[in-house]
Queue: 2 jobs
Job 1
Amino acid sequence: MKTLLGIDVGTSGTKTALFGLDGALIASHTDEYPMAQPQNGWAEQDPADWWRAAANGIRAVLAEADGAEVAGIGLSGQMHGLVMLGKDGGVLRPSIIWCDQRTEAETEDMDRLVGRQRIIEITANAPMTGFTAAKILWVKKHEPEIYEKCAHILLPKDYIRYKLTGEFATEVSDASGMQLMDVPKRGWSAEMTGKLGIDRALLAKMHESQDVTGVTSSLCARLTGLAAGIPVVGGAGDNPAAAVGTGVVAQGRAFTTIGSSAVVYAVSDEVRIDLKGRVHALCASVPGKWTVMSCTQGAGLSLQWLRNNVCTEETREGEAVGLDPYILMDRLAEAAPIGAGRLLFLPYLMGERSPHPDPDCRGVFFGLSGVHKRANLVRAVMEGVAFSQLECVEVFREMGVPANDMVITGGGAKSRLWRQMLADLYGCPVSVPASDGGAALGAAILAGAGAGVFGGIEEACGQLVGKGGTLAPDAGRGKAYAPYFELYKKLYLSLKDDFKALGGIA
């Protein structure tokens, strides 16, 4: 039985999944690991934990599918992480991962050395604390002895590639988030590396996502149970891989993920760059295509905060009857009217990234009065998160990137009410995927395309990825939301300076 293997290196754990050539899930295994926070705002992980988790996962899924012949391996993973290796391939320091915020001074250095607008023109993104280039500069400044020993810089999933194949390689979708790449030209930027003083020789060889980057080594075979010589393709960053796994591979198609954070991701036939730096542009996993992506920092996290601190009654009731408290919170929200009884919520619990890159902004309930109850609060939080996604989609449309066919994924997709809100606000149908293979399925599809199992990525998605149900927009409800959304957009602009003042109070 021929199969495809997808490995997704996440922040909380690595998911390893084995799929049939028809896209059906055969076996899946997730191995978890910790995240260290040595100081406030720092976030690090040990790459050895990722490899342990991946090797455990490979052995586990192979054991569940005795006799499976793996035709190809695809990789996905958390983006922007910095992995530094010495000449012997050993890890020099813990990986500084995507959510680390220590590099504000280094983004200012980037502005000074290259210029903000020039950085956006080349890398398609404004300087970001979470992106990889600033992390490299931080190590160079604060740990020069580590930088001097560094022979290879990799992204998290590319470290797993190295352990599988012995090759130092990356691909365009994940490398787009390093801010060292000329995104329009799909290659490393000599101007960025030169002006930032980063040795180009440290960076991995660039590939397209479906390119074969190496084959499993004999050492890998001994450690994992895989056969030697299996093709390993470029793969993709987590969101680009999720796009493939949900069939979002052509212009006009997009997905919204509502997890702890929320992402809107759309495909474009041409590179589209927001010179205001409100959203990100990346190379798509499909050759010759690009994407526009937004990120709301506190989406499902906002609802989780409300559950933990306000909806304790629903939590107790859910535990008593064996029901997810979010289902009970959904029922509360359904009982409240559109606009939550003239109550608005700004979901900035963790600062914000899109479309307001502002670490100082914070969550706000606006219009709170004595008549409001938990139902109003829950509805306001759900609407605030939905408004934040629409605000990003409006930027996409302003840029000429259509989003007319939307797939909804993540934990928030379980809520029919939330899906309907998004359909009504976006003014387009929203669907859920037929399977929840996500990024691991996307990585496996890329593996199949690279290994010659499929004629190409779009052909494979047409065969393997389906929709599990669609909600149509309601124009009447969309019109009812409109005045609340307009006021929502004004609130950040009104409070921007006050957020900064609040953050400056000792």
Note: The chain has two domains: 2-234, 249-435+445-506.
Job 2
Amino acid sequence: MICILLKRLFALFILGGCLVYATKVSGQELSLAEQVFQKYHELLQREDIQAVLPDVLIELKKPKNQPFLTTETINAVLDDPDLLKPLIPDVSEAFITLLKEDTDIQTLLSDPDVQTLLQDPEAIDELASLLKIESPILAPLIFDRYQTLFQREDIRELLPDVLTILKHPETQALLQPATIKLVAEDPDLLKTIVPEIEDRFITLLKEDADVKVFINDPDLQMLLQNPAEIDELARLLSVQSPLIVVSIVPASLESPGVGEQFSITVDIANAQNVAGYQVSLQFDSEALKYISWEQGTYFLGDIFTVPAIIGTDAITLASTVQTAVDAAQGTLLTITFEVVAVKASTLSLSEVILSSRIGTALFVTTEDGEIVEPATPAWDVNKDGVINILDLTLVAANFGQTGDIPADVNGDNVVNILDLTLVASHFGE
């Protein structure tokens, strides 16, 4: 215990030296985020601003949206706030309304310092940290960004315990940006600072390319300095499903007669944070003819649907919704077919893509379906597809026989009047 305490004191001493040096180099000047925070502290604490700000900050710092945040574009949006929606579709309508109606917001976004800050993702993160926004904004972002990594069994086994250790107050005192960057360069430092960390995690930091990218992510480094964000990421990891399942329902269907129509659904299960889907369904054009499709009940509200791509033996469908759905299960869509020929065939899903709210692919597995030929009824004794005098004659010819034979229509191991009557009742079918 004394050894561990000394190691931590030594780490704090090193960290203190780094921070003193950094302060001298910076001349104790306020950062851009600190300047904006001081100037607009009262406005940024308003309840209506706090209600929309976390999601707005997430959208504005996305790499795909950053190119739009030039001074010229921001000023154009101030003149016509409706311009923002085509540029950044995921920005909330509530924020657009504030831009239109609130002069304080207009003044804020007209400030050159604020416009400069919006062009710097790290400055946006710092401002969010200063505001102490209650709703975590980094955890959902990190969770979406590294879903591939989080699905790995070794990561899922180690990461919850690692997060628990990193949010301890003593550890938090050490998790300054400079320290995290040093650990990313030399993972053995982490073991010195936090001895409880498993050696397996240190090895991953050293040797695993995906984990190296993860620990070097500035957003993750910011998250690790906020216990509330760590808690939210841990929660997301604990509730994540193994894989989202997209399946054809029913999985097996007896073919109706030629010319008849039937419908199947494409269902989703184990789902979370789904904002869009793309599905291709292959079918046997010698057995089935595509008739129509309709949206299921999983997506609600404003749905944008891509025109269906219809081929002779496949159909591709895609839709997205403005607000991501967290329902675990539901029906994505319904497809109707007409029977061209009664034969066994398959319904196969391919190119299935599910999108999260921020446009990252979610992990999915698929389950196909099948069309099976109708079972031949027992009273069609000669199996020619029609019940007639030939079937009655076969039962009569075997009258009194025992055992498992076709003429034993009712399966009681004896051919008698019961079998004859059963065939007669279906005569002409």
Note: Confidence is low (pLDDT under 50) at residues 1-7, 9-27.
